[in-house]
Design brief:
The complex is a heterodimer of chains A (85) and B (241).
Chain A (H helix, E strand, L loop, with lengths): L2 H15 L22 H15 L12 H18 L1
Chain B lengths: L3 E5 L4 H12 L3 E6 L4 H9 L4 E5 L8 H8 L8 E4 L14 H29 L4 E5 L3 H4 L5 H21 L5 E7 L12 H10 L8 H12 L10 E4 L5
Parallel strand pairs in B: 1-2, 1-4, 2-3, 4-5, 5-6, 6-7
Helix pairs in contact in B: 1-8, 3-4, 4-6
Chain lengths: 85, 241
């Protein structure tokens, strides 16, 4: 499963947890707060879900704002893990 | 399913009493302390399969994140935390040693904050409506000669606990402090007979605080019966303050 697909699943789990419907218009420019509707607690939950599933803290290297930035950090982690394997 | 609680300073005193009570209540106890005491080993044997233990030196705050990831990875749900471990630093403010002060703040403030961080992240991952207890001290309220630095470290944790309660309440995570009076533990072993007598006279119940009473309060605050209590400091001090 691609990083993008895994992250979509996790983002929608956070949205489901907060009682809002599924989001299906993910593009690199999708904004986590304004478009996905994530507040700071949702972002914290999204971060730990990513860490559990993908093994990387996407906020550790600085704040991310858009979907494209999150996907890029997970893909970068996937590549470095594959190189180290 | 058994719920899992992480207890720091589990090898003796209040930490051990909390572990015993929670094990009897069906909790699975993950305990950490610098060394493994005979009392903890005996308790672990009596509750085989329900305890796990790791040696953590909380002064080494840079190791906490890795320690938590090894002991309680995000794949394993944690339901409660008892931040109990602490060191006392008894001296006049004019005599403060920077090295001893920093070591105490590492164990009493920085370490519990970092452990709380890890536990809340774990709770978010598993949608756990968990409970966090910080053990404070009656010295935060009363003040006492020689305990200014120690009391300040505990006061910091009370402020932290109230902040955590407000911050994570919307996710059902609770945070409270239990504030014991003077207990007969290793930490107060240095008190003289005169000091103990004076403390007893000042307490409404004319005695020191018994460890079991404090452990029972911790157990109550971790359980569902206290589900509406958060952001509080519960004083258990035999009427000292």
């Amino acid at each position: 499963m691609s990083a993008d697909d895994r992250l979509r699943e996790l983002a929608n789990r956070v949205r489901k947890h907060k009682g809002v419907g599924e989001f299906d218009r993910f593009v690199p420019g999708t904004r986590l707060r304004e478009d996905l509707g994530f507040d700071s607690l949702d972002l914290a939950e999204f971060t730990v879900r990513i860490e559990q599933r993908c093994g990387v803290d996407v906020f550790a290297a600085g704040v991310v704002h858009t979907w494209g930035e999150v996907v890029a950090r997970v893909e970068q982690h996937d590549r470095s893990t594959a190189r180290g394997a | 399913m058994h719920k899992t609680v992480l207890i720091t300073g589990v090898s003796r005193g209040l930490g051990l009493a909390c572990a015993r009570r929670l094990l009897e209540g069906g909790w699975r106890v993950c305990g950490v302390s610098r060394s493994e005491s005979a009392e903890w080993s005996a308790l672990a044997r009596a509750h085989a399969g329900m305890t796990e233990w790791r040696s953590w030196d909380l002064e080494r705050t840079e190791r906490i994140e890795a320690g938590v990831q090894e002991f309680l990875p995000l794949t394993r749900p944690v339901h409660a935390l008892v931040n109990n471990a602490a060191v006392a630093y008894d001296d006049l403010a004019t005599n403060v040693s920077l090295a001893r002060l920093e070591a105490m703040l590492a164990v009493n403030v920085v370490a519990p904050m970092m452990i709380t961080r890890a536990v809340i992240r774990n709770m978010l991952c598993h949608e756990v409506r968990g409970s966090i207890i910080h053990i404070s001290s009656v010295s935060v309220r009363s003040g006492a000669r020689g305990l200014a630095m120690y009391a300040a470290s505990k006061g910091a944790m009370e402020a932290f606990s109230r902040g955590i309660a407000q911050e994570w309440g919307p996710r059902g995570i609770r945070s409270n402090c239990v504030v014991p009076g003077y207990m007969e533990t290793e930490m107060t072993a240095g008190l003289t007979a005169d000091q103990r007598t004076r403390i007893r006279r000042q307490a409404a119940l004319r005695r020191e605080t018994d460890v079991e009473s404090v452990a029972a309060t911790v157990g109550f605050l971790l359980g569902d019966e206290s589900s509406a209590i958060t952001g509080q400091e519960i004083v258990v001090d035999a009427g000292l303050s």
